[in-house]
Protein: Polyamine aminopropyltransferase
Organism: Streptomyces lunalinharesii
Amino acid sequence: MIDPPEPLVVGALRPPEALTPARLPVPSGLGRLLVLAAVFVCAACGLVYELELVALASYLIGDSVTQASVVLSFMVFAMGVGALLAKRLRCRAAVGFGVVEAVLALVGGGSAMALYACFAWFGQSRIALVAFSLGIGVLIGAEIPLLMTLIQRVRRQDAGGAVADLFAADYVGALVGGLAFPFLLLPCLGQLTGALVTGAVNLLAGAALVLWLFGRDLTPRARWALVGLNVLVLALLLAGMALAGPFEQAARRAVYGAPARVAEQTGVQEVVLIGGAGGPHGAGAGSGRGRKGSGSPLELFLDGRLKVSSETERGYHQALVGPAMAGGPHARVLVLGGGDGLAARELLRYRSVRSVTVVEIDPEVVRLARTDPGLSALNRHAFADPRVRVVTGDAFDWLRRQGRSGGRRPAPYDVIVSDLPDPGITASTKLYSQEFYGLTARMLTGGGRLVVHAGPPRARAATFWTVVATLRSVGLDTLPYRVPGRRPDFSGGPDRALAPGPRPDGAGGPAALPSDGAGYWGFVLAARRPPRLVVAPDAPSTLVPLSVLRAGRLPQPHRSGPPSTLMHPRYLQ
């Protein structure tokens, strides 16, 4: 019998390179702990990238439910693809992991800046959002198979135990990253710098693991190639941090068309104020219109959506406040939202008003309304009036607490003004729900009126008539009405913009639009008894109840649609 050739025996018994014991500078127990620490850091960074994409996409595109679904779906799919692709790198797991982490640090760290640049200079960021979700997902998916190989090279153990250790470190890291993003990175560093810092941490963790712990297993060429790649990526991330401020200013100017006077990321939203530098000219001296030669009008943006324009807000707030105030007693008034002080300004013009309570979730908006020269001139220093009381809090939670105050319900209100963001925005859906209106109705007097800003009645007819149906579902009679004032292309994002065109001389409200245009503000007046549209003397002359429009002008099916509830929101469909 002839024995097989010796080389074949040796080759058959030689363990694969991916499973040869690593030559470590530390004992294997400590080496295993360091690999798990790297898993922890990489998992935390990976979740930060994911949350960063969701947050920025929700801000730039809107509708956070849709954007979160897009990001998570594409990213999870891409993680599976990355895990399959990583099988080809297991033979050189250390080098492969080092390259993956360097590329991930660059792509993930720069994703926020790239998305913002696409939005600011190209007008859309959906394609970039999908591309970054796929790219980051592939790179994150490649991590675990490579780390599994590395930890087995440090100390062999059964596959089940190794997987359990890796996923435990991965999940704990995800917890830390998920908490660090909203409570540390976003408030302290902002979206752009926070992503870049996360990329730098990710890069350093990967480089330390590969170049130091597994450095003895690298060839000189591979070692220097990884060093060069990591130095290049770190330099790019540091350059991004240094330029984040000027970049953000340039991007804001591209988005808003003018330099931002105020740009703050509060605990609730991004607040941007442009134009209207203050004084009698900058904000039109509270007249609601800029004067010739006064420069750009004052504009307040919240999370990228135009909320206030000094050229148009007077018509909006007169249409919102006037019918509710002219319809009956109005000594006690509640404003839900309205932190800019402009609804309060209109209310204080009625001498019989004894108290105005404003419930605003963002104290920074109220601070600006009090202290900014332009905005405080526009609201005529409404918050300095002793009749006005400001409450900081979520309107829904505040209304719930009023019915539980030691068993005593506070005195009801004659008028409630709901000056909240459009219902088509995900964060606002609960503020247009059946539950919310049920709580609001409890706060009305027997003859009290509730007025709601309900979105554009033509551009988003389904949303508008869902608000009407939801109000009716809590036992209130409704009277919907509209006034010209929105852009025909409202769906692009501005909340309270005015269609371009000349204004009639001496009129404080918006210019009239073509009768077939979609540029309208829509409101709903509600009460326990059928309300009447009593128009104040200075209300916009174009204010029209929708019930008197000729047949066929509005989609009839939406008038009798189902209400929106917390468990079945109907505004985002």
Summary: The two ends are 78 Å apart (CA to CA). The chain has 15 helices and twelve strands. The chain has two domains: 14-254, 312-499+508-560. The domain at 312-499+508-560 is CATH 3.40.50.150 (Rossmann fold).
